[in-house]
Here is the input.
Amino acid sequence: MKGGWFKVYALAYLLFLYAPIIILPMFAFNDATVIAFPLSGFSTRWFDEMMQAPALRIALKNSLIIAVSAAVISTTLGIFAARATTRYRFPAKAGIMGLIMLPLVLPEIIVAVSLLVVLLGLGVNLSIFTVILGHVLICTPFTIAILSSAFQSLDQSLEEAAYDLGESGPSTFRLIILPLVMPGIISSLLISFTISLDEFIIAFFLAGTEPTLPVYIFSQFRFPSSVPVIMALGTVLVCLSILLLTIAEYFRRRGIAKSGGKDTGGFL
Amino acid sequence: MIAFQDVHKYYGDYHALRGITATIRAGEFFSLLGPSGCGKTTLLRTIAGFEGISSGAVMIDGKNMAGVPANKRPTNMVFQSYAIFPHLTVAENVGFGLRRAGLSKDEMAKRVGDALEMVGLAGYGARAAHALSGGQRQRVALARALILKPKVLLLDEPLSALDKKMREQMQVELIRLQRQVGITFILVTHDQEEALVMSDRIAVMFEGEIAQLADPETLYRRPSSRRVADFIGTMNFLPAKILSEAGGKIEVEAEGFGRATVEADQAPGAASGDGAAVGFRPETLTILFEGQQATDREATAVIEEVVYFGDMTYYDVRLDGAKTSTRISMRNVFGRPVLEIGAKTRISWSPGALVLFR
Ligand SMILES: Nc1ncnc2c1ncn2[C@@H]1O[C@H](COP(=O)(O)OP(=O)(O)O)[C@@H](O)[C@H]1O
Ligand SMILES: [Mg+2]
Here is the structure.
């Protein structure tokens, strides 16, 4: 029976990956404080409670500020870097790009601890801004990867043609390059936003007295009574993440199709 | 009109243009012809302003273009990839260069419509540019460049991406278009036939240098070197010895031909290491059939290969006394048999057929 065992393997694999996530909405809608089977009935009260917790709201606000800032900053940096690597030759290009991409493979705990040491050494107070800094650091490699793929599929003669037809450098960028890489930019914004929103370790080390949502969630697990609320929150976050990643991938693919290039990468 | 004055261009250590000096006249159809990598595109891009030069000068209408950026030069370019903006419509592509002219909406639509009609795409304005075929993209690229009425239109291998039939059709259309608008066209191509068909004058380039600049007929009949002769069409070569030179006539002793006379103006070539040789095109030799009148320009030969082409037959013949074979092309005349391999035959050559390379 060819492929039979493969199917079993694939199924087991998917179950292993996603079963824990299924648990989230199950208990989020369960009418009991204790996280245990059997389920005792349908309820949305955890969602109501979630909406009312003030600390949660502050954490959510912090997280959103951080995620939006990190997304915008790292995407902006990503645009410059992707443009530079795909258009220009400069000395030690491979080395420089390697260094920029390094946080992709460095253990986050190392990044977090070293950032903390440096920031404390410089006498910087821990706050939302230090978290943004850390998140920009880990998001930038992702934005560069996405944007490089967008810039790479852009035919250089398109720029030259616009220039040839009388446009200046900046107007060529605005009229030709930007619209053609826009899907890549949107996709980069969404992915870095998602990464930042999820991120725990760096936020935990650098947040000081301004916890982000993941840090808040972690702290709440000490109180059994608030676990169902966390389940509800988790359900919302999972749905949001899936939605954002889907939109991001949609834009990335559409961008490649539009400029007539071949799909050479991507995360989904 | 356009003048290159001792233009040199280096890419790092690589010497891509090696002292280009040439003048391109206003209103002519000019081609840069040469094998891949000889620097044609580089030279074209120095006119457009995409490529700086290391020394020398590029002049347009007597004005030195040094320091004039591409967007301020009176040139427009049709790119090899056509570079059609994929996110715009056909009309937006064609009207792109007029954006800053401050035209009214009606005026703009009219100019774009005229340009599209000129290239045979009337009514295509609203189409999405990325949905066009190769030939249509080419036309959009032409309309987009010509709408600005540049002094010079630069075309980088514009036909190389098209299939044979489309290519031949576009060749004719480009010639028509050039006559109609009267703008100087500078075409880059590696296809000698294309250059011969389309151009008023051609510059043949090898390794960053212009080997010969002439009209198509001169290039074909009096190539200045064996290399140019080899690149343009087919040319046969046989070793020769110069016997005497007097009164505009050169007496030579050539393998296969015996003693022959070459007009001095048929001996353009500079000295080469290979020793002297006579060159001749396949159609300048004629096979004499039974009963045909002999001339004083006659030799004997053996047929070694026959290639039948319908309207033409190519014969590879070995002239008596020659070490290599020679290609002759004969128009097939109804009722005349195609000769067989191994047949002995007499051949004759037309006056002025022989070009002397020394
Ligand atoms: N940007 C560049 N950097 C380095 N070398 C180049 C560059 N552009 C062209 N060359 C080199 O210059 C030579 C001439 O190139 P090009 O003008 O494109 O030739 P052609 O159009 O005749 O095929 C080639 O050997 C090519 O490798
Ligand atoms: Mg080229």
